[in-house]
Structures are given as C-alpha cells and as structure tokens.
Amino acid sequence: MTRSDTFRRLGQVLVVCAPSGTGKSTLIAMLRDEFPEIGFSVSYTTRPPRGHEQDGREYHFVSREAFVAMRSRGEFCEWAEVHGNFYGTATKPVQAMLDQGRDVLFDIDVQGAKQLRRTFPDGTCVFLLPPSREELVRRLTGRGTDSEASVARRLDNAADEIRQADFFEYWVVNGSLDSAYQELRAVYLAGRCKPVLRPDILGSILDQWGSDG
C-alpha cells in the first residue's frame, strides 16, 4: 500500500437527472456495473412497481399515507411529486455511506436535485439530454408502457426539465449509448478528485517537508 492510499476521503454525492425516456436507468446500471462500490440511494415512491421491479431494489414502494408520515417526521433530504406520485430520499442511510467514504449515486428528478443541493452542496450534478425531441418520442412510444396521453404529458415535462438544465454542472447527450457512458464515467471520476472530498491530502503531503518546507 502506498502513502496515497492512506489519505482519508469523504464520499461523493453524484446526482443524475434526465427526462423520462432519455436512457438514464441504462447508463446508471452501466456505471454501477463498473464501479460496484458506489452506494445507490434507493428512493421511496408511492407509484406501483413496473415489470420486474422489486421493493428495496429499484425503489421502496410505500403507500401515500406512509410517505406523508415520513415526510412529516423530516426523514427525507429531498422529495417531490412527479406524474402524480411522490418520490423521496431518506437522509440517514445516505449520510452513513458518505461518512464511510462511499460515493452515493442519486437517480432523482430536477425538483429533488435542487433540494438535495441544499443538503449536500458539494455534490456533482449531471443532466442527461436526449439527442432530439423526435428520438425521445420514439423511445417513449417504443417501450409500450404509456398511453398517448401519458406520452404527451411526459414530453411536456421533458421540455420543462430541459429548460432547467442550467442548474446542473454537467450535460451529457445520450445519442450514442457508449459515448454517453464514457462522458458520465469521466464526470464521476473527476468528481472523486474534488478537494473538499480529500480534506487531509495537502496537509499530509506538506508535512513531509517539515518546518523547513
């Protein structure tokens, strides 16, 4: 083990947001496959599971009443209502991972990202963009899970979310999955080098020069 391996490091908050249908879930899965040590923030939601989703894996699926009770107790570091359903992230398990030096990835919407920035101001925020409106329509209709009215609503929401992209530090366009992943991967690795996440490194290195340095 080298000396550099002993430097204390705090966990990074990585926030990834995107309009529905942009390919966010696929890109996040690729990042977690390559970096399995990343802690994943499993959100709570009041929407029903889709397809093969499992409680505690993609989301914690809870009733509206249970969600409101948690919110009233101040247990969420962010929460939002999206497409008529509540989504939220519990603070305690996230802080525990960060204190252990583990990075934590958040898959949340724009409203949640803005709230989360107040709780974790040093986080890295990434916004994924579709290459075009036409391609987003193709992806939304192609998955066959939404009605025409639902697709129209998601397109309207996508336009609103894209107008808020200036809030984010990084933009990644998912036209080519491989290229988009390489960009997301680069952002994640760069974020790990933020000085605020390595508070002891300068002092530890400068100490090697002693009082005469």
Question: Can you describe this structure?
Answer:
ATP binds at residues 18-25. With 213 residues, this protein is α/β, with parallel strands linked by helices. It has one domain (3-195): P-loop containing nucleotide triphosphate hydrolases (Rossmann fold, 3-Layer(aba) Sandwich), CATH 3.40.50.300. It has 8 helices and 9 strands. The strands form 2 sheets. It has a 5-stranded parallel beta sheet with strand order 2-7-1-8-9. It has a 4-stranded mixed beta sheet with strand order 4-3-6-5. Strand 5 (76-82) and strand 6 form a beta hairpin. The mean pLDDT is 90.
Map the helices and strands.
Elements: E1 13-17, H1 24-34, E2 39-40, E3 44-45, E4 60-61, H2 64-72, E5 76-82, E6 85-90, H3 91-99, E7 104-107, H4 110-119, E8 124-129, H5 133-142, H6 148-162, E9 170-173, H7 177-191, H8 201-206
Parallel strand pairs: 1-7, 1-8, 2-7, 3-4, 8-9
Antiparallel strand pairs: 3-6, 5-6
Using brief descriptors, characterize the structure shown.
213 residues; alpha/beta; Rossmann fold; five-stranded parallel β-sheet; four-stranded mixed β-sheet; 8 helices; globular; Guanylate kinase; EC 2.7.4.8; ATP-binding; kinase
Under CATH at level 1, the class stands as Alpha Beta
Domain count: the total is 1
CATH superfamily: P-loop containing nucleotide triphosphate hydrolases
Roughly how many Å is the radius of gyration?
A: 19 Å
Helix content: 25-40%
Write the CATH fold name: Rossmann fold
**Tally of DSSP β-strands:** 9
The whole-number mean of residue pLDDT values reads: 90
Encode the helix/strand succession as letters. EHEEEHEEHEHEHHEHH
Query: Approximately how much beta-strand content do the residues carry?
Result: 15-25%
